[in-house]
């Protein structure tokens, strides 16, 4: 149990709202912009994942996951192999404490840390056997936690999982084509991402219908799937580049949202991938179609999409199948926005509004929760906690992105019901470890993991309490100084 990822998004609630920004750093955002601008009942929260913050990797009955390196002395992973009651007790305590503090838990069943036992037994999500085991695991969670948990997310970022774990090979279980990454001992970047995607989708559908059939009447909960994508701006006004942007979205976003909405893979994906894409049977198609109560949308950044990428026939892989050149630089040579710390991350607040509008149009106006949105900075180990908690760029990031979310709700009538900041606190950022900090709370790794609220956390608190005014909003940040600030965590303000 402890090796499965439960994500708790800590929630609150809200009020009413105004207009729309004109550019990335929009000086027209009202000084008192706060939760009162959002519709009644709008949910605010923050999220994180079990593997990234819990620790105790080989304690309290926890078996190893594909991300662990210690001796594999717990070979389980299936319910029939035994349930770790210490894990059940741990999550019961977390859920109960959350509710006791007036908050509402959103729980994610799979956030990438697959039990090593299932990877060893049959290859994990490469094998269809995973569908039954995933359903059994989900049912255990419904039985033990469903009396209190009313919002379930089956899968977190399946696009990231297939891309980094089975195409790039940089995430566990580290599979890819040998020509792509010498660290991969086995794998096929042209086929395995699609096989894994197929079994992820079937696991989601099986779990959704299990809940609807056996638990919905008594527990009255909701189930969704959380997906991430870049927003793609056409590189130019050409028809080819506009088509390239659509194709890029279909290969990331649509590969999962299309089947669970319409019961089939996107036509562009089918036409390009052909026989490497597993076929959905009629029964599978029917099970997938409309298999969610809400969609979790996760947004961080954007790229330009340019048509006619050259793909060599001996270098076929999932991430280049779309035949799109993805670039952060536009025709004018300028980046799409100021960079954060991670090399792929450029700040483009309008992208979240465009993505929400697109989701409404493309997927039949679903209920949406923004289940992740946040920004990172370099972990500067020379700074004291007092220095490190100064993060005006993060406050600005949340302010501009929330303003764009509001624009989608007010001006495009997108059915957004909630927004969750990533992350609650600084955490282990997968393959780049502790070099990056995404948290609203600073974690002092050198001092018994002491936690300190960052400036952005204090801003969020005022935002939620409707206490913002021109006197307590951190100064907006200059474009030219954003890069160094985000990378060094050393911004001192614009002159």
Automatic annotation (TrEMBL):
InterPro entries noted in UniProt: GH, GH_1_N_CS, Glyco_hydro_1
Name of a matching Pfam family: Glyco_hydro_1
Family: Belongs to the glycosyl hydrolase 1 family.
GO biological process, one term: carbohydrate metabolic process
Protein name in the entry: Beta-glucosidase
Signal peptide: 1-21
Keyword Signal: yes
Keywords in alphabetical order: Glycosidase, Hydrolase, Signal
Organism ancestry: Eukaryota, Viridiplantae, Streptophyta, Embryophyta, Tracheophyta
GO molecular function: beta-glucosidase activity
């Amino acid at each position: 149990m402890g090796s499965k990822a439960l994500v708790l998004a800590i929630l609150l609630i809200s009020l009413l709202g105004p207009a729309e920004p004109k550019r990335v750093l929009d000086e027209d955002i009202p000084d008192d912009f706060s939760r009162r601008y959002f519709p009644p009942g709008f949910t605010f929260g923050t999220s994180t994942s079990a593997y990234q913050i819990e620790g105790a990797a080989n304690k309290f009955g926890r078996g190893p996951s594909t991300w662990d390196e210690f001796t594999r002395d717990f070979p389980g992973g299936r319910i029939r192999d035994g349930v770790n009651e210490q894990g059940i007790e741990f999550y019961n305590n977390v859920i109960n404490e959350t509710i006791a503090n007036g908050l509402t838990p959103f729980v994610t069943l799979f956030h990438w840390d697959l039990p090593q036992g299932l990877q060893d037994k049959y290859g994990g999500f490469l094998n269809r056997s995973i569908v039954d085991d995933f359903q059994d695991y989900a049912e255990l969670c419904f039985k033990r936690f469903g009396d209190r948990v009313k919002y379930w997310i089956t899968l977190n970022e399946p696009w990231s999982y297939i891309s980094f774990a089975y195409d790039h090979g940089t995430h566990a279980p580290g599979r890819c084509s040998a020509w792509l990454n010498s660290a991969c001992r086995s794998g096929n970047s042209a086929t395995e991402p699609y096989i894994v995607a197929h079994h992820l989708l079937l696991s989601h559908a099986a779990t959704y219908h299990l809940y609807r059939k056996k638990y919905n009447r008594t527990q009255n909960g909701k189930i969704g799937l959380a997906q991430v994508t870049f927003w793609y701006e056409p590189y130019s006004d050409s028809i080819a580049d506009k088509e390239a942007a659509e194709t890029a979205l279909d290969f990331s976003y649509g590969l999962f949202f299309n089947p669970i909405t319409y019961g089939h893979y996107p036509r562009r994906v089918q036409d390009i991938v052909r026989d490497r894409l597993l076929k959905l049977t009629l029964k599978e198609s029917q099970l997938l179609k409309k298999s969610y109560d809400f969609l979790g949308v996760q947004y961080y950044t954007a790229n330009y999409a340019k048509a006619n990428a050259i793909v060599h026939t001996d270098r076929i892989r999932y991430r280049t199948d779309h035949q799109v050149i993805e670039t952060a630089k536009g025709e004018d040579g300028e980046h799409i926005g100021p960079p954060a710390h991670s090399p792929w991350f450029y700040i483009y607040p309008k992208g979240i509004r465009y993505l929400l509008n697109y989701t409404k149009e493309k997927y039949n106006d679903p209920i949406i929760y923004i289940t992740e949105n946040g920004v990172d900075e370099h972990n500067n180990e020379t700074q004291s906690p007092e220095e490190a908690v100064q993060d005006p760029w993060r406050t600005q990031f949340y302010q501009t992105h929330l303003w764009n979310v509001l624009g989608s709700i007010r001006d495009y009538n997108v059915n957004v019901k909630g927004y969750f900041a990533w992350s609650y606190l600084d955490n282990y950022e997968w393959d780049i470890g502790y070099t990056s900090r995404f948290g609203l709370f600073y974690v002092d790794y050198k001092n018994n993991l002491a936690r300190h609220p960052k400036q952005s956390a204090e801003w969020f608190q005022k935002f939620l309490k409707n206490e913002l005014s021109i006197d307590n909003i951190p100064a907006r940040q200059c474009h030219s100084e954003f890069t160094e600030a985000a990378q060094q965590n050393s911004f001192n303000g614009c002159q």
